[in-house]
Amino acid sequence: MKFRPALLCLLAVFVAIGPGTSSADVPGAAKRLDSLRDQPERLRQFLRNMPKGTDLHTHLSGAVYAESMIRWGAEDGKCVDTTTFASSFPPCLPDQLPLTAALSNTVLWGQILGAWSMRGFRPDAFSGHNHFFATFDLFGPAFSGRQGDGLAQVAQRAASQNVQYIEPLITPQFGASMAVANQTGYNPDFQAMRQAMLDAGIRNAIPAASETATAAISGSWIRMGCDTANPRPGCDVLVNFDVQVLRNQPPAVVFAQLLFGFELMAADPRWAGLNMVQPEDAAYSLGNYKLHMRMVRYLRSVYPGEHVTLHAGELVPGLVPPSNLRFHIRQAVNVAGTDRIGHGADLRWERNPAQILRSMKARGVCLESNLTSNQQILELSGRRHPITDYVRAGIKVTLSTDDEGVSRTDLTGQYVKAVRQHGFGYRRLKKFANDGLRCSFLDRATKETALADQARRFRKFEANWGS
Fold first, then answer.
1. From 248's CA, which of 28, 44, 49, 115 has a CA 20 to 30 Å away?
2. Per-residue pLDDT tens digits for 303-330
């Protein structure tokens, strides 16, 4: 069982929704969606209410809107640099201001929002790719200590869009992993390196990582009033966490993080999966990509019951040399043996895309498609985006937000793009939502309950559009 309080809430919702209705009408809902294709505002209203199942690819810090981070940072006495707009811990230096200054200074408020997100971004000498990834270092200190607040915001937003389950990405105990890596060093013999890191006490950080999950969950429940007589809708959203491994690090540090992630998942089921993050085109990420995939393959053999999803193919021509566009998805699927891939944007430039798709389908590998971030970071959208290739190949595809706060979007926005940019209809969107639950890292019993609840939600939604 992953997150028992949320499961109880899900069961309560399952009962409250009732047995469904025989007047459910898929053709009516499909016809309604088609009539709204050229009416974006009304299409969004329709899709906001549609059941969407999951958001499986969402980085917790990147999912929070910058407005909230400014206010939380102000409450916590944090500072902001008046030139770079980087937040920091107090005391404030001469070239910094308390974040409280932004609450009454409209110009400063807007400058911080522009620096901490894609709001109003216009590419010039600084690309969307660089601006997007730069935001995390800028707002990081302001968000520090506010994971419970952030999780509450993300859960509330999910509930308001008829989402049942989220899998936020968090980096647990990076400092502890790095310290062990620095102590033991790198060894190309993965078995020996694993044992050295275990002997160095890497497991000692597991209680602190578990407390991170506990604090985030309990903090969010307090903020949403989940144990009161008037709980907010976000209390009904199921939550598990995925371990973030920072891939743009020396090999020993990457291996230590991966090892710690697998040990943590084995010890605490609330950590449901593992992922590798940071720009795929960064120096260590790119130069050691094949090595990283071999590391994951080895650790999966040692911890066969644990789940992995990998950022793979978040690349386009010009971002990296052509040779680096030809193998990232293939390696994630065939070498690392990942359960899901995130992005998969460079599919058409990989070596033998058709073979990769056949391998993904045979292995049951799912795709987390992030339409807004692919457009902002990679300038990849519309017909240039490969989502239709995955769909035609029979791959299970789920739409996700990636970093909805940074991108200034939400999950409904991804469904709108799927309709307006890619021409998908209601039945395909429904499959995206259901496949998200099927591809989730929920345990089997919870997943079956969630899928049954999803079916009831769809019948109720479709009944409103019956012919």
1. 115
2. 999 999 999 999 999 999 999 999 999 9
